[in-house]
Amino acid sequence: MQTYLVNLTYLVASVLFVLGLKGLTHPRTAVRGNLLAALAMLLAIVVTLLDRHIVEFHYILAGLVIGGAVGALLAVKIQMTDMPQLVALFNGFGGGASVLVAGAALTEAAALATGAAAIQLTIATAASGVIGAVTFWGSLVAFAKLQGLITEKSVRLPAPHVISAVVGLLCVALGVWLVMSPQTLVLYWGVVAAAAILGVLLVMPIGGADMPVVIALLNSFSGLAAAATGFVLNNNVLIIAGSLVGASGLILTQIMCRAMNRSLANVMTGMAPPAASGGAGEDEVYAGKVKSAASEEVAMLFDAARRVVIVPGYGMAVSQAQHAVRDLTNLLESRGIEVDFAIHPVAGRMPGHMNVLLAEADIDYDKLKEMDDINPTFRQTDVALVIGANDVVNPVARTDADSPIAGMPILDVDKARTVVVIKRSLSPGFAGIANPLFAADNTLMMFGDGKKAVLELIGALKDS
Predict the structure, then answer these.
(1) Order of strands across the sheet with 418-423?
(2) Euclidean distance between CA atoms 392 and 371, whole angstroms
(3) Which residue of 77, 240, 269, 457 is 20 to 30 Å from 43, comparing CA positions?
(4) What 3-state class would DSSP assign to 339?
(5) Would you call 66 exposed, middle or buried from its count of C-beta atoms within 10 A (0-12, 13-18, 19+)?
């Protein structure tokens, strides 16, 4: 194909990638954004294959068939509650692909003994190998934590920062050596092996509650690995697409960190929030103050309510209660009650986790309100129903400067007239502190599994 036609198509694809990302910023335009990005990728792949004068398409077609079949199977079989680990796995696949493609390009260059582009090729290859391997192995660890194959808790070696720093310096040293000796292919796989160890070391200390940040960051890494591979292949559209993914993932990571009132360094070093110096203990907060309620009592509250706000948390995801929550919403609305959902940015185990679950249950996007939009309305809310959330509704974040979550933006559910909390127990959240909301005068606790409790509430409402 003519060079100008290739570059023009790449430009069109790049614009479509940007429009696709813009569409993903709002649930109503997300489907269109996905379609635009998919069209951009299709254009980029077709033009690249035609431009590179491929001699044999059999392996490419076999890869398309196998990959398409696996993707279709995953799309049908994977439950929406398992989406965080699937996203983590996809991030890893992106990093792994970058490692293999860059390695293949370096091998080809070494075989052809082409030294003209050796510096750009080897620098970009080393970068792709390091970032890609960190992404791949880090994502596998994140997947294993989310899937329950290994503990979700922080796992830290003695002097973990020193070990990670040493391995990181080893990656750099091997990368520099590779640039100086591009014909020594074993150095590339040495870089990849060291980066693989670094990826495991970086993610193992991170607890399950920090997974939204980790997944967003690994998504950014996968984009940066793709951009580096674009330099390896001299492919402009791959550089642009990878840069867009890298930048958007980093922005999302920053949003997640702000929502937790923690720095990225704090999260990545696996440091739990500092212990409170003067916070009250659970006995002092809860003793004689927690009021347990049965579904019949809560149903009477809903009977008299005009506005209800539902706050989903990780407990809803674990119990797979989203469809029961949808049925409850429909029942309340059929009685003329206004229902909205309050979404905290870090609720769940990945960015947008609650949005994904509620969308799967066909809950109207317009009912999903972001924290800044919903907080001013809690004073006009008759009942706030909290399902499996803890730290994101803990008022200590506003009232106790010594608290480990001090300054963390929270959902102001305590300002509602009545709060109903569905939770298995009074166990603390990731911060490890008591939640005064559970003992507040306007709070009732429904202890039990999220899905079971919501179904009992639906039954009580129908009987009332």
Answers:
(1) 368-370, 338-343, 307-312, 383-387, 418-423, 443-447
(2) 10
(3) 77
(4) strand
(5) exposed
Spot the catalytic one: 210, 340, 391, 449: 391
φ, ψ dihedrals at 154, nearest 5°:
-65, 130
- C-beta of residue 273 within 8 angstroms of C-beta of residue 262: yes
Reduced to 3 states (helix: H, G, I; strand: E, B; else coil), residue 153 is: coil
What gap in Å lies between CA 142 and CA 219, rounded to an integer? 12
Residue 211 sits at the vertex; the CA angle it makes with 208 and 212, to the nearest 5 degrees, is: 140
For the chain, the straight-line distance linking the first and the last C-alpha, in angstroms and rounded, comes to: 72
The token pair that represents 164 in the structure block: 């990670």
Check residue 55 and report its DSSP letter: S
> Does residue 391 have an active-site annotation?
yes
The CA distance from 142 to 84, in Å, is 9
| 90 contacts: CB under 8 Å, gap ≥ 6 | none
Strand partners, 386: 311, 421
What's 370's DSSP letter? E
How many C-beta atoms surround the C-beta of residue 275 within 10 A?
A: 12
Task: Find all residues with CB under 8 Å of 424, minimum gap 6, and list them.
Answer: 315, 447, 448, 449
Rounded Cα distance between 355 and 371, Å, is 13
447 phi/psi in degrees, rounded to 5: -85, 130
Neighbours of 379 (CB within 10 A): 10
Helix, strand, or coil (residue 312): strand
Q: What is the mean pLDDT of residues 319-342?
A: 94
CA gap 411, 395 in Å, rounded = 9
Cα–Cα distances in angstroms (integers) from residue 388 to residues 310, 348, 428, in the given order? 11, 10, 11
**Predicted pLDDT at 114:** 52
Q: Please give the DSSP secondary-structure letter assigned to residue 151.
A: -
**319 vs 152, which has greater pLDDT?**
319
Residue 166 CA to its chain's centroid (Å): 28
In the chain, where the domains are located? 78-268, 282-463
Token pair recorded at residue 302: 């809903």
pLDDT at 1: 57
CA distances from 357 to 64, 74, 347, 350 (A): 29, 17, 11, 11
Give exposure, 330-362, as e/b (b: 16+ Cβ within 10 Å): ebbeeeebebbbbbbbbbbbbbbbbbbbbbebe
What is the predicted pLDDT for the residue at 407? Answer: 81
Is 282-463 assigned to CATH 3.40.50.1220?
A: yes
In degrees and rounded to multiples of 5, residue 26 shows phi and psi of -140, 140
pLDDT tens-digit series, residues 374-408: 999 999 999 999 998 888 999 988 888 777 788 88
